[in-house]
Task: inverse folding
């Protein structure tokens, strides 16, 4: 009899397990997603923590403050708030090497039925950090590090976005939201495990209205939102306020174009690899007609691939392009050494310009995608970006050529040019090796 | 520059150009086709990685994702030893030790056994309680493939056969085995910590747990928690177990916390951990943690019947010493003294120096009338771990059981 009862109990247990639906990543996972939205005045973090059945069970014990064995809605709300406030310390955001103070904008939680009669928990928080006096237009170096739950298993994703009048020049963080805010985990993708990253951001001038973003706008209020504690240590804004701020943050087209122009200038001015290559081209043959031809060929070629890549038709990965750019420097340096005066400079400039164009495209393509630019808006942004590049390039050529032509009349110029060429070659090879090793 | 020099120079400058063009073209193609830059792994490598990764998640349901990979491997190479070994490894991960052993024997019949198949065979035999055979296979492994995997298996067998000093000596030797990486050495440190703890030497155990911590994370946390519990620092032990639980909600950590809370008579924590274990038991459909849940339920008033069912199932698939004592304890709590004594004697047949195993054995044999042996076992157990005194009276409070019955888990 006892055996029969046991068998029935086991069968019931097994039925319960089989009928329920499991968490897609397994019921012991803790999954996190953060979207960092960079605006001219600060950074907003939209943070989601998705706990499967077992972690929810563990946290329910922590949330049950009165120890009655039951976690009430009020206890979950208090727990959610403690968790969200803890994010201010656990998430590290640095701008130009200095930490930013995060402020909690809003938080909420949602519990749903999971497997085997257990619950799953979803915690969400929106945080904001102002740059303060650290950035008033210009560029910033930005770093993010999530130190929460270091040893836990699960999906870990960080997405970087930019608002209008902000361009992401370079970043180690993804722009694509692969898990759709932890609602659709990519099949057979394993676990994403990104918790930190860096970025270089070009900012337009900040305006007070641009300080807020839409991260919290889509969230419906939670059932026990009334129970939320007083907002004294945080910025408390309701949904309507956020929407209004987003509306007023829309920048005019001229401002967008100006920011792309500045982005282009910034990219070439700080892109020493492109500048070294340009120097090598100039040294190839110091005749004004030839120089004009070479520079034009380089400009046409890199504009071509820049457009192709920015439009998304062909996007060779940076791990190929960056080493290839280094090789172009080495090659031009070597050519100056062994065959100075070559008549094929324009062809060379065109071929290698194609590679450099892909390099230029990285920042533009991503920024354009961030702004969801389409049609004429996209073409204008592309043109602005390219014009920014050409403006700086022209300024450099116009400054350098007279000096080089004057210097070429001196006896010491030839050995000096060879020395520079050798330096270019060595630098190119060295950079190639480093980029290959770190790709 | 003469003609040869010019040609050489052209060659020198031409090659990088060629590489640059090829690299760009290949990059463009790869970018277009979405080919990952990461070097592709072979199918067996992917299966091995998936097995290791899934083991790390402590979620048995994720093994279902490996099944299609294994089927593909078996379709490609149905009679290859490697396919059989991988399938055996998978089976063992799901505690299907007997079929795994058959596959491993088949794999070995196809050619000279490699270190992995011998190691897995040794493991399967230990889990099936066939210790004499395990000794022979492990000795063969030691002779053919001397190294950390063989030495640690041999050390474990020495421990089971009541050679604690010999086991510690062999584990220490394994630490110096050539080719062992930091993670493998950390695992050996954890085994040493456990053995020193069993021997009643918490200071030595702590040294090894500390050495393991940088490389073994949560497992080291569990070891350190057990050491603190033995030192009577139950609050610290609980904090460590809770930390491990938050990172990975495994029944092993919850049960450790539950046991410490019971020992410290911390009713609130007992309730919390009980609630957690009840929830975990609901999700353990494949019953990979049946041993833990049987031990948990056996001491709960009115739940010993469930404990016996779980322990019986565990014993049928994994008839080693620990399943014998687990079943013996459940039967003892359920009032079946005769069956309990029978399994208890089977569990004690190698005189394994595990204090808890000996203490439970003492309690059962005393109840069954074998007073003399019970006294010896109890003396041995308490000499190593005095905190076991009164273990059998701990049980869970009645309120704990009522709590479990009265509340719907969805409210948590």
Result:
């Amino acid at each position: 009899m006892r055996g029969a009862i046991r068998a029935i109990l086991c069968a019931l247990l097994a039925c319960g397990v089989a009928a329920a639906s499991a968490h897609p990543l397994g019921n012991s996972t803790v999954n996190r997603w953060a979207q960092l939205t960079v605006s001219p005045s600060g950074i907003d973090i939209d943070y989601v923590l998705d706990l499967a059945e077992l972690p929810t069970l563990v946290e329910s014990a922590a949330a049950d403050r009165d120890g009655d064995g039951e976690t009430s809605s009020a206890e979950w709300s208090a727990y959610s708030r403690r968790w969200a406030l803890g994010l201010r310390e656990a998430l590290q955001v640095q701008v130009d090497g200095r930490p930013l103070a995060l402020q909690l904008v809003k938080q909420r939680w949602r519990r749903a039925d999971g497997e085997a009669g257990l619950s799953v928990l979803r915690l969400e928080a929106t945080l904001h950090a102002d740059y303060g006096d650290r950035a008033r237009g210009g560029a910033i170096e930005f770093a993010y590090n999530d130190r929460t739950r270091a040893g836990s298993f699960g999906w870990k994703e960080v997405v970087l976005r930019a608002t209008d009048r902000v361009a992401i020049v370079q970043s180690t963080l993804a722009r694509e939201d692969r898990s759709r805010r932890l609602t659709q985990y990519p099949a057979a993708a394993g676990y994403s495990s990104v918790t930190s990253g860096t970025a270089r951001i070009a900012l337009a001038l900040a305006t007070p209205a641009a300080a807020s973003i839409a991260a919290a706008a889509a969230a419906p209020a939670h059932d026990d939102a009334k129970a939320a504690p007083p907002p004294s240590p945080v910025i408390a804004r309701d949904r309507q306020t956020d929407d209004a701020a987003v509306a007023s943050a829309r920048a005019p087209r001229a401002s967008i174009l100006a920011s792309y122009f500045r982005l282009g200038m910034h990219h070439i001015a700080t892109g020493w690899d492109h500048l070294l290559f340009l120097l090598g081209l100039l040294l190839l043959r110091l005749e004004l007609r030839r120089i004009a031809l070479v520079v034009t060929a380089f400009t046409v070629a890199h504009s071509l691939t820049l457009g192709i890549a920015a439009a998304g038709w062909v996007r060779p990965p940076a791990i190929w392009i960056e080493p290839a750019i280094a090789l172009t420097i080495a090659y031009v340096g070597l050519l100056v050494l062994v065959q100075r005066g070559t008549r094929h400079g324009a062809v060379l400039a065109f071929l290698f310009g194609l590679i450099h164009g892909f390099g230029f495209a990285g920042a533009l393509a991503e920024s354009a995608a961030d702004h969801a630019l389409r049609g004429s808006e996209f073409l204008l942004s592309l043109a602005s970006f390219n014009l920014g590049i050409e403006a700086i390039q022209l300024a450099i050529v116009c400054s350098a050529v007279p000096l080089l032509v004057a210097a070429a009349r001196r006896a010491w110029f030839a050995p000096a040019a060879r020395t520079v060429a050798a330096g270019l070659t060595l630098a190119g090879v060295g950079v190639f090796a480093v980029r290959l090793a770190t790709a | 520059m003469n003609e040869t020099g010019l040609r050489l120079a052209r060659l020198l400058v031409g090659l990088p150009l060629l590489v640059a063009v090829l690299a760009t073209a290949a990059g463009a193609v790869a970018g277009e086709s979405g080919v990952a830059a990461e070097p592709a792994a072979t199918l067996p490598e992917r299966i091995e990685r998936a097995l290791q990764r899934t083991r790390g998640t402590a979620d048995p349901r994720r093994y279902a994702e490996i099944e299609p990979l294994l089927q593909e491997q078996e379709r490609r190479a149905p009679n290859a030893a490697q396919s059989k070994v991988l399938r055996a490894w998978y089976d063992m991960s799901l505690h299907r030790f007997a079929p795994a052993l058959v596959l491993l024997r088949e794999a070995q019949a196809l050619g000279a056994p490699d270190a992995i198949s011998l190691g897995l065979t040794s493991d399967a035999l230990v889990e099936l309680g066939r210790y004499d055979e395990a000794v022979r296979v492990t000795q063969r492994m030691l002779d053919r493939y001397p190294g950390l995997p063989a030495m640690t298996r041999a050390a474990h067998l020495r421990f089971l056969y009541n050679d604690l000093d010999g086991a510690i000596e062999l584990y220490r030797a394994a630490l110096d085995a050539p080719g062992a990486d930091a993670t493998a050495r950390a695992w050996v440190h954890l085994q040493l910590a456990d053995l020193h703890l069993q021997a009643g030497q918490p200071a030595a155990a702590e040294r090894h747990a500390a050495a393991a911590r940088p490389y073994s994370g949560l497992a080291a946390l569990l070891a350190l928690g057990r050491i603190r519990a033995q030192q009577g620092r139950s609050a610290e032990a609980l904090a460590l177990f809770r930390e491990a639980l938050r990172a990975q909600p495994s029944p092993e950590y919850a049960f450790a916390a539950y046991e410490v809370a019971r020992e410290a008579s911390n009713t609130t924590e007992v309730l919390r951990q009980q609630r957690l274990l009840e929830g975990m038991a609901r999700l353990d459909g494949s019953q990979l943690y049946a041993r833990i849940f049987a031990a948990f339920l056996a001491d709960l008033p009115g739940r010993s019947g469930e404990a016996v069912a779980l322990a019986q199932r565990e014993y049928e698939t994994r008839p080693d010493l620990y399943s014998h004592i687990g079943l013996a304890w459940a039967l003892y709590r359920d009032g079946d003294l005769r069956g309990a004594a029978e399994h208890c004697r089977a569990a004690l047949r190698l005189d394994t120096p595990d204090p808890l195993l000996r203490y439970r054995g003492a309690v059962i044999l005393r109840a069954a009338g074998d007073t003399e042996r019970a006294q010896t076992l109890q003396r041995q157990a308490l000499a190593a771990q005095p905190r076991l005194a009164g273990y059998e009276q701990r049980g869970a409070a009645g309120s704990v059981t009522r709590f479990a019955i009265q509340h719907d888990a969805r409210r948590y």
